[in-house]
UniProtKB/TrEMBL annotation:
Residues 32-51 bind DNA. This is Transcriptional regulator BetI. Keywords: DNA-binding. Gene3D superfamilies: Tetracycline Repressor, domain 2. Signal peptide: none annotated. Residues 9-69 form the HTH tetR-type domain. Pfam families: TetR_N (PF00440).
């Protein structure tokens, strides 16, 4: 890495860590460009040299706060004996964490990030490569994928290749399970639930399992 690249990474980290501090103290909705710049010890014009949109700052800061999720899903998936087992384990972990921290997951996986949002995930792990140290090689491509719709596709493809589900059901299953999560997530974000988060987690996982059982060979 060149000196210029190192300097850029350091500046990114200053602003990202300042954003994380604001989220801890006030919540992600209270993050503003001016607050972040002031906290980092720079002016807003300097910040805009590194981040073109406020949503990008929120994305990177939210990723920093999802470390517990990454560690847990990495550990739990090791217990899955088949691709379909790992697919369900991954969903259960993702549902639990996303429903309990909906605004953080919204900033990473749902919020409009402008052009080429997929590159932000790759950039994040370039700035914080240590977060991939304990992640198995086969799981790393999934972590680089921001699109929830695409994240589970590799496991479903392996499940189809091993004869667990019909190949023609791979895409429908992927779409159905993602739409189930998105629907419940939207209800949580908009405070439209008639029951608590625990029940939302239980129902969502039940619906996803029903989709899987409907096509399992």
């Amino acid at each position: 890495m060149t000196n210029k690249q190192l300097q850029k990474s350091r500046m990114w980290k200053y602003f990202i860590e300042a954003t994380v501090e604001i989220i801890h103290e006030e919540g992600i909705d209270k993050v503003t460009i001016r607050k972040v710049a002031d906290r980092a010890g720079y002016n807003s014009a300097t910040l805009y040299n590194y981040f073109s949109e406020l949503s990008h700052l929120k994305f990177f800061a939210a990723m920093r706060l999802l470390g517990g999720y990454i560690e847990e899903v990495t550990s739990l998936m090791e217990d899955g004996e088949t691709p379909l087992d790992r697919y369900l384990i991954a969903w259960e972990c993702f549902i639990r964490h996303s429903f309990r921290s909906p605004k953080l997951f919204n900033a990473v996986f749902i919020m409009d990030l402008g052009d080429q949002p997929g590159k932000l995930m790759q950039r994040y792990y370039e700035v914080y490569p240590a977060e991939l140290v304990n992640v198995p090689d086969e799981l790393q491509p999934t972590l680089f994928e921001r699109s929830v719709m695409k994240r589970g596709k590799s496991m479903l493809q392996m499940a189809a290749e091993e004869g667990q589900i019909p190949p023609e059901q791979m895409n429908p299953v992927n779409e159905k399970t993602n739409l189930i999560w998105q629907g419940m997530m939207t209800s949580i974000l908009n405070h439209r639930l008639d029951y608590d988060i625990g029940k939302a987690e239980e129902n969502t996982m039940t619906y996803i399992r029903e989709v899987i059982e409907g096509v399992r060979l």
